[in-house]
């Protein structure tokens, strides 16, 4: 029997009187009351991005002091890696059946959002919703997953390896945290689900990204006698003109269209008044289409951008995230279809998303991966984040059914 929740949070079919104790507990973990409680608990525990990134004490405290005790209540066993990521590993190994779920602790800063860490259950034209920082992006997906994990562990019927990683990432734009997690696993999981807001649609593809800096070097002088210097800003103008006219020589993707190259920051030095700057640093964002290599994309640009004397250039490659695209005839997509159906939805909706996250890391390593969770992408980092309670409840059931399809009873 597969428990299914309706939009109201009530079970479409209640557990029978003679149901096993584990099955009754599974229903409890998937109840609307339990899921909303989890979400409000997560929102009320700030874990904002800071300059410290993954090593920020608040982010690590969210994992150890907020999330971990909830897992302990479920009877889950877990450990921590060197970056502070939590890794839960349950069920028998070596069966050929495994799945990894990835959640994120870090959220966008509260910024201009009013009362970002005071969760509120509100009424909207579309139904009841929860408001707070991170509900559209990371924390609702995390709450849904905790419900699903609790249900699966309460049933105690795992026939394969169920892995969950709660990472210190979420806003960093790099794969460092998930790469650290993978070093702890003896065997690669068969598939991975990145739990992030996708409006309950399956993100079957996403762009990758390689960041890089171009430094224009000149010669400093007092600005009263600019002829004694070589103004790096003038050299930067030449570089920007080349970048704007550059043909990336990449075929358009059917869903994403063309590859893009975008300047995202510019800075000059020294930081002094009345001084001709001797250095300009420009940061660029090269979005990668599925099938592209970040190394090749970066080297292609580096080999085609230059300046004449008296300026000179240097380059520095920054963080990388890999692109991803799931095969629709592969085993993971078939499991997702089954999970959505068992959760009460006949058809799943899929799409390609522009932002980059860890799904690309897994596909780069031969692991099928998608991004999937409640929360609307258009609300990421906005001053007003809210998520429908019905979406939270539905996705908790989808995650639970996906666990059953992947590592539960055949």
Describe the structure.
With 410 residues, the chain is of the alpha+beta class. It has 2 domains: 21-206 and 323-407, Zn peptidases (Aminopeptidase, 3-Layer(aba) Sandwich), CATH 3.40.630.10; 209-320, Alpha-Beta Plaits. Helix content is 30%, strand content 24%. It contains 10 helices and 18 strands. Helix 1 (21-29) packs antiparallel against helix 4 (139-155), helix 2 (32-43) packs across helix 4 (139-155) and helix 4 (139-155) packs across helix 10 (389-407). GO terms for molecular function: hydrolase activity; metal ion binding.
Features:
alpha+beta; Aminopeptidase; Alpha-Beta Plaits; six-stranded mixed β-sheet; four-stranded antiparallel β-sheet; 18 strands; 30% helix; elongated; Peptidase_M20_dimer; Acetylornithine deacetylase; Peptidase_M20; metal ion binding; Peptidase_M20A
Q: So, the CATH homologous superfamily of the largest domain?
A: Zn peptidases
Structural class comes to alpha+beta
Q: How many domains would you count in the coordinates?
A: 2
What fraction of the residues are assigned to beta strands by DSSP?
A: 15-25%
Radius of gyration based on Cα positions:
24 Å
Second CATH tier, the architecture of the largest domain: 3-Layer(aba) Sandwich
The N- and C-terminal alpha carbons lie at a distance of 12 Å
- The H/E string reads HHHEEEEEHEHEEEEHEEEHEEHEHEEH
Counting DSSP E segments of at least 2 residues, the number of strands comes to 18
Shape field: elongated
Helix content: 25-40%
Order of strands across the main sheet: 1-2-6-3-7-17
CATH class of the largest domain: Alpha Beta
Biggest β-sheet strands, sense, barrel:
6 strands, mixed
Query: Are there runs of 5+ residues with pLDDT below 50, and where?
Result: 1-22
């Amino acid at each position: 029997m597969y428990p299914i929740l309706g939009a109201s949070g009530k079970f479409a079919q209640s557990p029978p009187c003679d149901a096993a104790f584990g099955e009754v507990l599974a229903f409890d973990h998937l109840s609307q009351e339990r899921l909303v409680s989890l979400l409000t608990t997560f929102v009320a525990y700030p874990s904002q991005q800071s300059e410290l990134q993954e090593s920020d004490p608040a982010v690590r405290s969210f994992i150890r002091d907020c999330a971990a005790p909830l897992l302990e209540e479920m009877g889950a066993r877990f450990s921590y890696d060197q970056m502070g990521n939590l890794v839960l590993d349950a069920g028998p190994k070596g069966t050929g059946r495994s799945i990894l779920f990835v959640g994120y602790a870090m959220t966008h800063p509260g910024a201009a959002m009013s009362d970002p860490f005071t969760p509120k259950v509100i009424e909207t034209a579309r139904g009841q919703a929860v408001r707070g920082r991170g509900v559209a992006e990371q924390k609702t997906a995390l709450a849904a997953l905790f419900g699903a994990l609790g249900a699966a562990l309460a049933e105690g019927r795992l026939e394969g390896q169920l892995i969950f990683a709660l990472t210190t990432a979420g806003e960093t734009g790099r794969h460092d945290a998930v790469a650290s997690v993978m070093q702890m696993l003896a065997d690669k999981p068969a598939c991975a689900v990145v739990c992030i807001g996708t409006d309950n649609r399956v993100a079957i593809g996403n762009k990758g990204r390689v960041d890089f800096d171009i430094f224009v070097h000149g010669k400093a002088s007092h600005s009263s006698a600019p002829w004694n210097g070589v103004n790096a800003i003038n050299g930067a103008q030449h570089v920007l003109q080349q970048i704007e006219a550059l043909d990336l020589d990449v075929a358009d993707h059917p869903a994403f269209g063309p590859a893009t190259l975008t300047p995202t920051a510019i800075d000059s030095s020294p930081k002094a008044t009345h001084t001709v700057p001797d250095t300009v640093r420009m940061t660029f964002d090269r979005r990668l289409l599925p099938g592209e290599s970040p190394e090749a994309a970066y080297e292609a640009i580096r080999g085609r951008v230059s300046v004449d004397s008296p300026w000179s250039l240097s380059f520095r490659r920054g963080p990388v995230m890999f692109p991803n695209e799931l095969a629709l005839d592969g085993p993971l997509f078939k499991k997702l279809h089954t999970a959505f159906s068992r959760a009460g939805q006949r058809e799943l909706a899929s799409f390609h998303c522009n932002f980059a996250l860890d799904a690309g890391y897994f596909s780069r390593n031969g692991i099928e991966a998608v991004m999937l969770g409640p929360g609307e992408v258009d609300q990421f980092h906005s001053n007003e984040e809210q998520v429908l309670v019905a979406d939270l409840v539905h996705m908790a059931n989808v995650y639970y059914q996906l666990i059953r399809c992947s590592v539960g009873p055949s």
